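not sure who needs this but someone in the group chat was asking about Glutamate synthase (NADPH/NADH) small chain from Sphingomonas jatrophae so here u go. i didnt clean anything up, its just raw.
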Amino acid sequence: MAENPMLKFVRVEQSYPSKREADVRREDFREIADRFAVEKAEEQSARCSQCGVPYCSTHCPLHNHIPDWLRLTAEGRLREAYELSNATSTMPEICGRICPQDRLCEGNCVIEFSGHGAVTIGSVEKFISDTAWAEGWVAPLAPLADRGQSIGVIGAGPAGLTAAELLRVRGYEVHVYDRHDRAGGLLTYGIPGFKLEKEVVMRRIRRLEEGGIIFHTGFDVGRDATMADLREKHDALLIATGVYKPRAIKAPGVGSAGVVEALDYLIASNRKGFGDDVPAWDDGSLNAAGKNVIVIGGGDTAMDCVRTAVRQGAASVKCLYRRDRANMPGSQREVANAEEEGVEFAWLSAPEGFEAADEGHVSAVRATRMRLGAADASGRRAPEADPGSEHSLPADLVIKALGFDAEELPRLFDAPDLSVTRWGTLRIDHRTMQTNMEGVFAAGDIVRGASLVVWAIRDGRDVAERMHAWLKARAPVRTQAVVAA
């Protein structure tokens, strides 16, 4: 009787792909770890317990068929493993790189609870997807016959790209509008290359272009066309802009030169990586080289900023966060990577003000130590200032990374009737994912608030289903035969 290829977690230890040494990876923006060798991927996949209730899948926003493609990988059936992975995710190689698996699938792995260490799900997902690209298994889009209906997607981030792909394969003409000069949204300009190399994103976008999706980059809705213009042009619209408005700090001196927004800083760095002309990087305004850098915040954007500053040659990099390590929202793996690379964390610290030199450029951050009080409405203990603990930290560049809120889309899009919540996110009917405007749908962070890429992909998948159902019911008579598909 053949040996069961699975259930090897007792005798096979947990193992991740080896990371490059910190001193080496500080020098470039390449991803810090290579993918598994095939034998190692099969070995780690074989640790899966194939449990009857797969918590890894139920805690994945996409409900990926994780135990099934782990078993296929363990059996050496990599093409089938990729096809199953790709069946639920439009971007498995991206999720394998940037999902916080420690909080989602791996954090809920049954064998993690047993003390044997979770299956390294994200690394296996990255391995099988990268193998699929290398072997030519990633099929081009194969759209159904033209339905005679057109869709406009505003926003080329993960939610918009997912919906665009799924609607295009159903036979719709799809146009994607984005303010940036490259598609991808934060995948392209917000996430540094050491977490997600840009060619990984660009090849996905090329596949969509080759499949007939039409991209209009450098296109600002409200400037180049109003939303009313786009509604007139298309049979349905999807708003998937994400949230880009940085949360503010109210403190003396916050307007000093050298106190910058996280997204401005990351976009400048990523543009430089593409080889673009970036004056604010070249003149040092958005370049950490030789500077004492302080990043304020404790989320993944803050981790992206501190690790970018290290690679730009900062003299020192410090992260201020008002809670302790256990209560920070960012990935603990990212914190560990940052510490390995020389970042110093000032836990339970918050800015009180910013000091500036005579020329108006920031020279220090006045900070106070915090302590954790009673839990707030979210269940997390609220930070309180510790009286008498004020101190000053030298700084030449301060990066604010406190998260993002929705922009004022009704004003920006010249669509004053577009309904929003009190948080500025778009109000939708959650059964149909439609806004208060007929034929205008919304998905991703612009509905749920700042969240994870994997949730944006899930929302893009869901809204494609809702839009398809709505458009089928309104298809021209001449295309009824096609629409019945």
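also The longest strand covers residues 362-375. if thats useful
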